[in-house]
Fold:
Amino acid sequence: MTDSRLDALPTPCLLVDEARMVRNIDRLADRAAHLGVTLRPHLKTTKSVDAARLTLTGGTGPATVSTLAEAEVFARAGITDILYAVGISPDKLDRVVALHRAGCTLTVLLDNAEQARAVAETSKASGLKLPALIEIDCDGHRSGLTSDDPALIEVGRILHDGGADLRGVLCHAGDSYAAVGHAAHAECAEQERQAVVNAANVLRDAGLPCPVVSVGSTPTAHAAQDLTGVTELRAGVYAMFDLFMTGIEVCDVDDIALSVLTTVIGHQKARGWTICDAGWMAMSRDRGTAAQRVDQGYGVVCDADGRVIPGLIVTQTNQEHGVIARRPDYTGDIPDFPVGTKLRILPNHACATGAQHGQYHVIPKNTDAALKVWPRFGGW
Amino acid sequence: MTDSRLDALPTPCLLVDEARMVRNIDRLADRAAHLGVTLRPHLKTTKSVDAARLTLTGGTGPATVSTLAEAEVFARAGITDILYAVGISPDKLDRVVALHRAGCTLTVLLDNAEQARAVAETSKASGLKLPALIEIDCDGHRSGLTSDDPALIEVGRILHDGGADLRGVLCHAGDSYAAVGHAAHAECAEQERQAVVNAANVLRDAGLPCPVVSVGSTPTAHAAQDLTGVTELRAGVYAMFDLFMTGIEVCDVDDIALSVLTTVIGHQKARGWTICDAGWMAMSRDRGTAAQRVDQGYGVVCDADGRVIPGLIVTQTNQEHGVIARRPDYTGDIPDFPVGTKLRILPNHACATGAQHGQYHVIPKNTDAALKVWPRFGGW
Structure:
């Protein structure tokens, strides 16, 4: 029996299963409590004040963001302890100062002397001791200094001696996304912990302050066995989960809270294709599962109630067309989908699919209640 | 000398080189005039009323769209002859009727009897003869009926006899994107023309009306040698162009009017990486050039004035980080980019990169004038 509340929704559109989302949020909150660290959820996945209320401790607790636009929106919503976890560019510091003046404690991130000098100079010029973390590299994934790099102490001194508030160190085990399974992620988590704790000790041994020791990625956050020396844990996509996270065994398909509702608009029966109105504009161009053991195409096909239909994925997309077809290795029966049939597609990557949409349609935990709409924002 | 007008822009942001855009628009308008067909530009690439004014004949001339949201925005802006070139789903017909009642002649597209019956029934129920085109398949790319499919006449009769306005046939040579070079695209264009002209003749031989014979894709529109029997030409990405179109030789790199302005935020010098603030959120996840002869990564790196810097592409992206590095085969020198340096990245796919942004910053044709802002919209 199809949920009649979905009938009135224009397709394609973004659906959230609130019960699953709450379960995902509670799962990581329990882990953080058990590990004895503060949870600082990353809001870049959901970019929604309503979703943030559900995700953050007490509705306004510590948060992580990926853009200043996020910081500005969430600060206006009363979320005032925010970490901007992308290396600061000097010309963005005027907006950082404006956020502080508006009552938001925004911590910036950096990994080089040029950034540190800019933050120190802006601290002096503004009369604000801008809080900053130094990014540590644990796996060669992207940014950050290794704990044995002499630049670590140099950057720390520029900040501390220059009038900024050196708050500590941060690490993101980006390579954990390429590892599969709990044991592998636990190893990545320990590598992440060691790198950042070592860096904290280097700063402290040099007489510099380092109260914050921050780690996190969704895979390591769910696998860490011990976070001794760490003060806070970050993760983002876990609130929604997606097929990529299923592929590396951080969650099950039934944990994925985000989907795209679509309508069948035609067929190419000779080719076994069903054409639907969820193209890449609705799904995003993310093909993150392409290199995984199971390539999920542009997404896994479910019925309108969210039950996976065996053997079917979105095999190709154009801007506003999705082609639903059989997985290469599937030999079972495939149902017919008359024109007008509603289906749901589970996405490869919740951050990327979410970003294609201006709002969520939320299926509330209370299954009898009306659907809710959560506005979503983008931009920088 | 860097254009100082760009200094105040927050990065990442979307730039349009208006002079290039006008040149691209004029190029295809001249071709359409020479070929003796009406040009019906596809507005799905730019999704902007300001861009539409520049692109459409007389500022409001015939247009193509990919979503009803586009039709609604453009109709409110006085663009009243619109083709919605994605197969209609029956539950969208109430919005089609509303557009007609608001004075917009919106033509729908379909390729099956279920859709045709829905359009005919809605025509009768509303008292409007809803105009419809039948989609023709010339290359097995996606949707459409072949001209020898008995369903073609069946669908035509359902529309015509059922009270809709059977306007004609439409074909999109989607496979032309996989062909390289003018001669290959000219062949695709002839295949597209023959398929749709044959289909028109099938309908006319059956006593059905077929005043409109519509073809188009950016590659075929730029290569067609003869459009006998065709009445209108569609294309979309040509107004901006992109690296994908460069890769199949429809345009030069210097024709690309769209770019993303970015700021350098750090380095991993041992790996030869420059980190910038244009991640996949700014560029999109589109990797359309991955399968071309030259893989352009996530984009080609230019200086702030738009001059290509030899040997550099965005090799990887995270949500808000881009990694700029050497092309695998490049052995020349690479300049240093201090933190704060502004660069421009040319995109793989203008439709996908544009969709990540809420506005264009336009460098006007008159090079002394101030930058303009063109709002951009999305959604369905």
